[in-house]
């Protein structure tokens, strides 16, 4: 016995934001890569590398929202393909860590060298990159709070925005001092920021894939609320987890008291899950007090 469940997901709602951001970032990536190679700026190249990661991450996020919305034709995906969005977020994490590692290695390689850095292209491209990233941030911000998939793309662009600021700062400092170390130092700072953001997002992704209880939802509180439903004697085998952003799922066994109406118990329990915890898809098994079948479960 269980509830009906929602077929919508947050990522699909914001697909248009991902499309526009993807187009802007992809176009500018080519510009920044060419400028980085011609100017010799590690900060500019590091930002271009991170922007390349953005292009891949945004593209993966777009593909994931399409896969998540696709009907299952195999009959085997009983929860659909909504987890595709979470895997796309995981890819964004790996890309961000890869870019951070590349920047760090390249900066270490430059120690003891005196690279020639052209500050003019750095400043122009850095300013253009900042403008592009601000537009992309404004687009993705609206969906970042609702979708882990969009949040991954949003954090990528946040890091890119800082990268553009770093490129501008490096260009100004190198021009003012003539010391190319500023370019390398700021590139390392960008790498550290990218790595920290990647780890934070990675923890969220692993929490979903590990089927942990959703953030802000304590299983003990859920059990207590269900146990307070009129006619419920005991709550056991309770599980709560996140399928994808905006789609929390729960299962539980509700043991009823002698004479309790199972239909009333089920309706009341579904209401509690929906209104108190925002869980629209709760599979609830109502069983009489005399039922002992659950004791046969071995794990």
TrEMBL record:
Keywords: Ion transport, Membrane, Transmembrane, Transmembrane helix, Transport. The chain crosses the membrane at residues 20-45, 51-69, 81-105, 117-140, 152-174, 180-200. Residues 19-209 form the Cation efflux protein transmembrane domain. GO terms for molecular function: zinc ion transmembrane transporter activity. The keyword Transmembrane applies. InterPro entries: Cation_efflux, Cation_efflux_CTD, Cation_efflux_CTD_sf, Cation_efflux_TM, Cation_efflux_TMD_sf, CDF/SLC30A. This is Cation transporter. It comes from Knoellia flava.
